[in-house]
Amino acid sequence: MKKIDKLILSTFIGPFLMTFFVVVFMLLNIQMLKYFDDIIGKDLGWGVLGTLLFYFAVFTTPTALPLGVLLSSLITFGNLGEHFEITAIKSLGISLLRSLLPIFAFVLALTVFAFYINNNLVPKAALEAYSLLYDIKQKKPALDLKEGSFISSIPDVSIKVDKKFSDGKTLKDVIIYDHRGRSGNREVTIADSGKMSTILNEQYLQLELFNGYNYSEGSSADKDMIGAEPSKETLSKTKFSQTKIVFDLSSFAMMRTDKKWFTGNRIMRNVSELTVDMDSVQRQINDQRLGVYNLHENLFQYHVRTDTLKLPLALRKIKDRRDSIAKAQANVPVVTTAGTTQLQDYVPKADTSNWKKTKHISDSIFKAPTEELEYTAALNRARIIKSQLTNFNSQIVQEGEEYRIFEIQWHKIFASSFACIAMFLIGAPLGAIIKKGGLGIPVLVSIFFFIVFYILTMMGDKWAKADLVPVPVGVWAGDVILFSIGLLLLRQAKVDARLFDADSYHVMWDKAKTWMISRNLMKAKSL
Fold first, then answer.
1. CB-based contacts of 426: which residues, under 8 Å, 6+ apart?
2. How confident is the model at residue 115 (pLDDT cuts 50, 70, 90)?
3. In this structure, are strands 170-178 and 157-164 parallel, antiparallel, or unpaired?
4. What residues form DSSP beta bridges with 177?
5. CA 188 to CA 301: how far, in whole Å?
6. Within 13 Å of residue 475, how many CA atoms lie on the same side as its CB?
7. Which residues are CB-contacts of 67 (< 8 A; sequence separation ≥ 6)?
8. With the C-alpha atoms ordered 185, 188, 194, 200, is the resulting torsion angle positive or negative?
9. Which residues, including other chains, have CB under 8 Å from residue 476's CB and lie 6 or more apart?
10. What does the buried/exposed string (b/e) look like for 451-468 if buried means 16 or more CB atoms within 10 Å of the residue's CB?
11. What's the pTM?
12. What is the pLDDT of residues 198-235, one digit of tens each?
């Protein structure tokens, strides 16, 4: 590698790493803001939050890589153009295309790396992140006793405090309703004050109460009774100066759900798994379509039972292949006279003994007068046929949507990787044309092209999912359009076009005015 290649490559790698981590940080913040309400107040440890942030950071990498390439290439070649280093390189006889070669090789390697991340790491990170996020959503909020209101976070227990002091532990005027006996408000504890603390690694809540009463309503004869007979409902009142009550906080712990329930989502599948999914869905679609063509054999008993519907070529091949497999599986072993075993096709013989009698009966049925009961039966059969066709069509539509969802994700794994090349072809020549480095104009231009790319990608995915355009067209539209724009910008940078120079547009405007004036003079002379 020449020194000039090392210089250009080293100039690119530094801004790329910086912009990549900045973009990941920005996208990570945007991603986490969506679930802020589900995370806040759950008393999650730093380990859980760090794990969630790490997996979401890996999940946002496919979007951050193309944007990082675009911004860093703009900064790199903008700085080279601003300091006249591109002019010095050209003076040495090195063309602009040759100066792009080392960074282009790096971007190609980055594209392969991006595909590896999209196909292997992103599905695993998505599985871990969203399964963990689901468990966080299911987790109860941290226990927080609010003044003047009942808290029912602990199962079968309601607690109310009138005042909670600034230390977070001392309580004033405590009321506890204990429903754990499943018999209503029969256990009530009232205390003048108390202290709250957690014990055994925060697995239990301990309330130490002072100067209060415990009221218990029941029918036990062993309790102190006030104005009641032993066989009737009783009320016991116990006074205490100090007591302790312990509540189990296991319901506040975060329970992890088995990840197998999340693996069916498309974003958690790689290319090979998506291919298997598409094959299985396509097989179901073919079964439904063949079922439509075979419907008349079961529902039309007389008029069109012997009619043949011409299958489309694709369905005919599928049916022939299945028939050949079924025929091969129907072969049964036969023992010959020589004692060897052979396979012989099992073909059932048709019973033609009563053919003439059946034909005579069917002819008499068609000649007989039609009764009202037969009209009713025909109408019911038509309704059944309509219901069957409706079910077949709805199943085909539903499975077609599922197939397109998997196909979109299959193409997106490749398209998001190829976006690195498209963004480089835009950023490098555009930076050479603008000749402005730093984080000013390059950031604005990068945001503009990224918004264009994002809109094209979202619209393409939406149209492909709705079956308005083919899936490859919808998914690859953003890459192809930006790639074409990049080639156009590369051509303009090669010829040193002054696209962003205001003086060039003034010169063009003056030439246009001169041409218009001369044209008007020629018309006046001709008149």
1. 70, 449, 482, 485, 486, 489
2. very high
3. antiparallel
4. 158, 188
5. 75
6. 19
7. 19, 23, 423, 446, 450
8. negative
9. 411, 415, 460
10. eebeebbeebbebbbeee
11. 0.66
12. 777 667 778 888 988 888 876 544 444 445 455 456 77
